Amino acid sequence: MTDCSILRKIAALIAFACLVCCGALPAFADQLDDDLASQWTTRDLPAQAGTPVVSAARRFELALNIGYVPTDDYYNYFPIALDIHGRITDMWGVMLRGSLLMLHADTTLRRFMDSHQNAITTALLADEQLGDVTVMATFHPVYGKATVETSNLLHFDWGIFAGLGAVIARSPNSTHTETAVAAYAEGIFGTDMHIFFLDWLALRLEASLRFYKGSTQWYVPCTLSVGVSFFLPEF
Question: What's this model's pTM, rounded to 2 decimal places?
């Protein structure tokens, strides 16, 4: 047998193998797709798509929050806030908030100055916030849930908010000789999460920054809060 005939037979075998493979590949691909679909399908799992199971759209949320402001030099504030939140859709809403900030404790620095300074009382050296009112736009683009096997444990959403308002504070004058109660414009920006246990009841977690210019300087209080939210029926 000559070398040319051997080469022709090898070429014929390769061509035949290629034809077989080309004919088998589509069938193999279809079988692979079927196997993957049966392995990874979410048909029998509690997957969620589209409209959330717990929807806040066209509902009012009433929230009571208790927070902590750790960033002030002289006072540790424990604000109590009441929110009225109108959720226009599941993502967009408008919120009105009123806060009381009169509940606070002296920091270590304030206690130190109180015990070592006789000429000027420490109360005249710092803004003492009394309360604020803000109006905010809210945006909650993230929705999800936690499950165990096929049982739903809870649903949650996450979002951000920003707005404007006014803070009422007892502020020192430029010479730190007397104080007066005044209102100052403020801005607010923050993020929050609702953890729904029932269709009408949720735990609310929040972190926010407020910023305003007092009589002598800028203040940027940071607030961490936890609260409970009640969702009314659709309007």
Answer: 0.72
